[in-house]
Amino acid sequence: MESPTLLLVHGAWGGSWCWRDLLPVLDHHGVAFRTVDLPSSKLKAAPTTGLVDDADEVERAAQTIAGPIVLVGHSYGGAVVAEAATAISNLERVVFIAALVPHPGQSATDASREVRVRTLLDEAMLVEGDHLRLDPTLVARALYNHCDSDTSTWATSQLSTQTIRSFRSPRSSSDLVVPTRYIRCDDDFAVDGSLQESMAGRCDESISLHSDHSPFLSHPEELFEALMP
């Protein structure tokens, strides 16, 4: 059987840069991968850029991969891969990392409000017109609390803006028919643990990591193990 390619989809305010410390681990183990940069996370993206635009970007990346694909979505990227999945014919399975998994018809915001717990990430969000940005004085604790100071400082410097439209766009795809796995991060100050439990209940199986919201930077080896079948 042909080994699958991991198609890695980052979360809000992020980019392909976030996978920096996971990619050498994948290379070491001979695991093929591809990354995407979501349009809604580009600095001051057009305010109309939403979930469909992000899913289209993932679908375009998938079209360049000949063999089987494993979609991996982190945080808001969970909504993106859920939206894109049914359009990818060679999809083998989907993995969600501390992610939002909206039902068809729900937006990422709808999914996040199913458990009403205010997080440090909520405290860090600042509204700038049609975009959200993150307060750099608060974001390290919200996203990178298991990372060393150099990594946390570097990652914070990479963060972009995020369109509000992306969070509020409803999912239009149907239910997933491929196997799904949820990776819960149990020291996460961005997506509350009780919300992750709820999202994990929508998947076929779940795994727990003792990690912050960004295990690809803080615990790349452990995340690799959790990603593998």
Show the helix and strand layout.
Elements: E1 5-9, H1 23-28, E2 33-35, H2 51-62, E3 69-74, H3 77-84, E4 91-97, H4 108-112, H5 120-124, E5 125-128, E6 131-134, H6 139-143, H7 149-158, E7 162-163, H8 164-168, E8 180-185, H9 193-200, E9 205-209, H10 215-218, H11 220-227
Parallel strand pairs: 1-2, 1-3, 3-4, 4-8, 8-9
Antiparallel strand pairs: 5-6, 6-7
Helix pairs in contact: 2-3
Structure notes:
This protein has 11 helices and 9 strands. Strands 2-1-3-4-8-9 form a 6-stranded parallel beta sheet, with helices on both faces. Strands 5-6-7 form a 3-stranded antiparallel beta sheet. It has one domain: Alpha/Beta hydrolase fold, catalytic domain (Rossmann fold). It is of the alpha/beta class and 229 residues long. Helices cover 33% and strands 18% of the residues. The protein is globular and about 50 Å long. The mean pLDDT is 97.
* Rg calc: 16 Å
Assign an overall shape: globular
Strand arrangement across the biggest beta sheet: 2-1-3-4-8-9
Q: How many beta-strand elements?
A: 9
**Terminal residue distance:** 14 Å
Given as residue ranges, the uncertain stretches (5+ residues, pLDDT < 50) are none
The helical percent reads 25-40%
Overall tally of structural domains: 1
User: What is the N-to-C succession of helices and strands?
Assistant: EHEHEHEHHEEHHEHEHEHH
Give the helix tally. Answer: 11
Q: Assign the CATH topology.
A: Rossmann fold
Q: How many strands, which pairing sense, and closed or not: the largest β-sheet?
A: 6 strands, parallel
Q: Can you tell me the CATH class?
A: Alpha Beta
- By CATH's scheme, which homologous superfamily applies? Alpha/Beta hydrolase fold, catalytic domain
Overall mean pLDDT stands at: 97
